[in-house]
Design a protein that fits this description.
about 20% strand, five-stranded antiparallel beta sheet, alpha+beta, 7 helices, globular
Length: about 210
């Protein structure tokens, strides 16, 4: 081993070829058929469950079905119905469950675009106020509380951690919105449930 480079010699019997392949984020068809994780694993998505749209993180997969974890619990959805969304929407819209008979997925995507615009300030002044960001898009009873939490799987390392809505929203508002963190946001609060040492890496997978 020299520096960051390591050489490994494999002793193989004659006429035996040894091939090692490393693939990141890629699943071949034969892997899919034998139960290997699909391309949706750990992604944030809108799914359909019992005639309702649900928004959460894909935590499990079984052939043509996936399990979405949301702020309202876990739901089974068809892989074919999934639409990828920004992870922070799992925290902001995870309690919203509109009926598929009343809303199209295109309308949901348009609403989500407006929510992200308010949060990031793409075409208007951004806000980290959850009621302000969600006003007009969903009633107050469907809006999350800042103290609500969800078990989130870090897509970068597979570690599952409890993450609060306030933490996720603040991180995206300040970091992805290119804003300077305020002292109150930088300081841990008594309500924090995640390890501060790992928070930045974890939230980087949400932003």
């Amino acid at each position: 081993m020299s520096g960051m480079t390591a050489s490994v010699r494999l002793q193989a019997p004659p006429h035996l070829n040894v091939e090692v392949a490393i693939r990141l984020g890629q699943v071949l068809p034969d892997e899919y058929g034998t139960g290997a994780p699909g391309e949706w694993l750990h992604k944030a998505a809108i799914g359909v469950s019992d005639g309702l749209y649900v928004t959460g993180q894909v935590i499990a997969y079984n052939g043509s079905q996936v399990t979405l974890r949301t702020l309202r619990g876990e739901f089974h959805c068809r892989t074919a119905d999934l639409v990828e969304v920004s992870p922070v929407l799992c925290f902001l819209t995870g309690k919203r469950q509109p009926r598929t008979a009343d809303t199209t997925v295109e309308e949901l995507v348009e609403q989500n675009t407006g929510i992200l615009d308010r949060l990031l300030g793409t075409t208007q002044r951004g806000s980290r106020s959850i009621p302000r960001v969600l006003a007009g898009y969903m009633p107050a009873r469907q809006q999350p509380q800042p103290t609500d939490t969800i078990e989130w799987i870090n897509a970068l390392n597979g570690v599952e951690t409890t993450v609060g809505v306030r933490h996720a929203v603040d991180y995206v508002h300040f970091t992805d919105g290119n804003r300077r963190l305020t002292a109150s946001t930088e300081s841990p609060t008594n309500d924090d449930v995640t390890d501060q040492a790992d928070m930045e890496e974890l939230l980087a997978s949400i932003g």
